[in-house]
Amino acid sequence: MDERAQGGERVYRGIPASPGVCHGRVVVLGDAARHVLRREVPAEAVEGELARLQAAIAHTRRDLLDVQEQVGRAVGQSEASIFDAHLLVLEDEMLLGEVRRRIEGDRINCESAYHEVAEKFAAALGALEDDYLRERAADIRDVTGRVLDHLMGRTTERDLRELADPSVILAPELSPATTATLDPRKVLGFATDGGGTTSHTAILARKLGIPAVVGLGDITARVRGGEHALVDGHSGMVTVNPTDQTLFAYGQLKQRRAAFDERLASLRLQPAITLDGHRVALAANIDAPSDAASVVASGAEGIGLFRSEFLFLNRRDFPGEDEQFEAYRAAATAVSPHATVIRTLDLGGDKLPAGWARAGEQNPFLGWRAIRVSLALPEVFQAQLRAILRASAFGKVRLMYPMISGVAEVREANMLLERCREDLRSAGVAFDPAMQVGMMIEVPGAALVAEQLAREVDFFSVGTNDLTGYTLAVDRMNERVASLFSPMHPGVLRLIHATVQAARRHGRWVGVCGEAAADPAMVPVLLGLGVDELSATPAAVPAVKFLLRRLRLAEAADAARRALESEDAADALHVSRSLAMQAAPELFHGT
Ligand code: PEP
Ligand code: MG
Fold first, then answer.
1. For 498-523, how does the pLDDT look when each residue is reduced to its tens digit (9 = 90+)?
2. Pair 253, 358 in one domain
3. Residue 278 domain-assigned?
4. Which of 34, 353, 376, 543 is the most buried (most CB within 10 A)?
5. Does residue 150 carry a catalytic annotation?
6. Is the pLDDT assigned to residue 570 strictly greater than 50?
7. Could you count the other beta carbons within 10 Å of the beta carbon of residue 426?
């Protein structure tokens, strides 16, 4: 019998985070000790559990001896002898004897028996006065973690880049820094216990074209490394050990989607213009200059958001002015004659460069983030401003400040920008003196003073991801409150409406670069609110264009009026989605 069918199919439901379907062997990442499920086992399975324990101990012994040898060669024998203590813990008969007794006596699975006993030993040592003995508690946990990793088929985040075969990754969470380095040839898709659809991890998965499901609760505790899983990023379902029937059904769906994608691709060179002749600027979001090629391929007209902070992640030092200049120039020239909106650093929150500890901030999303970091590190900020100004001599570059909360921040940033212009002028370095300078509307307070802010900038771009989070007090990364996260909440829509109205009074343009701009269900209301530009992940651009070309501005404006007056997010979404479904039902098949 097919091995996949033997284990029986199991289906887990989460939040769809990145469309696409993949199927492959599972690699489970993360701290095995965090999620150990206690299971009773039948009497006839006890022998098997004891044998698994024996094998995991032997495996761990080989690992420790390997590490010891490597450390001995690279650092020295005395450092390598540290691992003698680990080997002693591993083979401690008192510990192993109690684990065996629990497996036999309590008839429980060996990972929970091992975890419980080891934790008991570690906790007893950790409570002692003696520093030396307390440190042995850490040894026990280290060794236990390795044994549990073997028992549960776990891999660590650092091993991800060395994956031998294409795999489906299951993890408690994935950081944006790690996700940015995933190789789509090796990582077929991923599914996580936590997370929300507008987390940067989900945004990156969509950009990479990797199917993903988040918010699955404790899937990493329920699935073992080596099992097979099918990740459906459209519906948010993860099917473990799918039957041949399930695989066949998905295969058919995939074929239908591929045929529709070809139809969408044929619109690449067509403008994003509504049936009643209203032209929308449809741009794309990127986080590296190499993404510019996919912007062009998607049929987007330029870059509406370059998340420059990704240039600062996964490295020990910050990129200097010249390195940044090259990156910005590359992006700007690749999409020329269209514009490139380069957002200045949005570090902080979940985007932490190497060495920045999360510790010390109770609420990183309300803390030292984005423009606040830039203004506190003027040298870093000015190097970036100069790099952007210099790139403006090579293409239509626009500069944008993130997470502005009031006029003072924009004025201070603009003052530093003016200083950079003067530096470049006196050094005879070329830049575009008319380069547009804009800001993001992500903070509700900023939307409410958009009138004042419009005097200081050339454009606004609404970041619906953070604007929604901050307006509704919903963490965009937390799956427990994910159902409350909706950019269609009338409170959020009123802030966008106020922003657009204020911008119009001052002759400024408004874009939306949050994930709402990539969601066909939300596009009608954004269009109807009078937004001039939508900027979506390149993969979503063709669908948004398809829809825009089938909508009428007048109908969208009517939908926006009704959405603004709606009672709640569900009603407003219904208004928007109904119009989208009526205009382009093909986009909603199979969702
Ligand atoms: C947003 O908040 O909507 C946005 C586009 O910025 P980011 O997702 O990078 O926080
Ligand atoms: Mg944001």
1. 999 999 999 999 999 999 999 999 99
2. no
3. yes
4. 543
5. no
6. yes
7. 8
Other Cβ atoms less than 10 A from the Cβ of 238: the count is 28
Same domain, 404 and 507: yes
- 514 in contact with ligand 1, CB cutoff 6 A: yes
pLDDT at residue 355 tops 90: no
The total of other beta-carbon atoms located within 10 Å of residue 423's CB is: 14
Q: Within a 10 A sphere around the Cβ of 227, how many other Cβ atoms?
A: 19
Task: Name the residue of 466, 485, 495, 499 whose CB sits within 8 Å of the most ligand 1 atoms, as the mutation to test its pocket.
Answer: 466
Give yes or no: residues 311 and 168 share one domain.
no
Q: Hey, whose CA ends up nearest to atom 6 of ligand 1?
A: 463
443 CA → ligand 2 middle, Å: 9
Same domain, 462 and 565: yes
In terms of domains, do 366 and 246 share one?
no
The verdict on the CB of residue 176 being under 6 Å from ligand 1 is no
513 tagged catalytic: yes
Percentage of the chain modeled with pLDDT above 70: 93
Which of 259, 275, 290 is the C-terminal boundary of a domain?
259
CA–CA gap between residue 144 and residue 117 (Å, rounded): 10
Nearest-angstrom CA–CA distance, 304 and 306: 7
Does ligand 1 come within 6 angstroms of the Cβ of 513?
Answer: yes
Residue 300 lies in a domain: yes
Ligand 1 near 196 CB (within 6 A): no
Kindly report, residue by residue over 443-462, the tens digit of the pLDDT: 999 999 999 999 999 999 99
Residue with CA closest to ligand 1 atom 9: 307
At 15, phi and psi to the nearest 5?
-105, 125
Domain that holds residue 162: 4-32+158-259
pLDDT score of 3: 37
Question: Which ligand is nearest to the Cα of residue 286, counting in written order?
Answer: 1
CATH of the domain at 486: 3.20.20.60
- R_g of the chain, CA atoms, integer Å: 27
160 pLDDT band, cuts 50/70/90, is low
Distance 332 CA to ligand 2 centre (A): 22
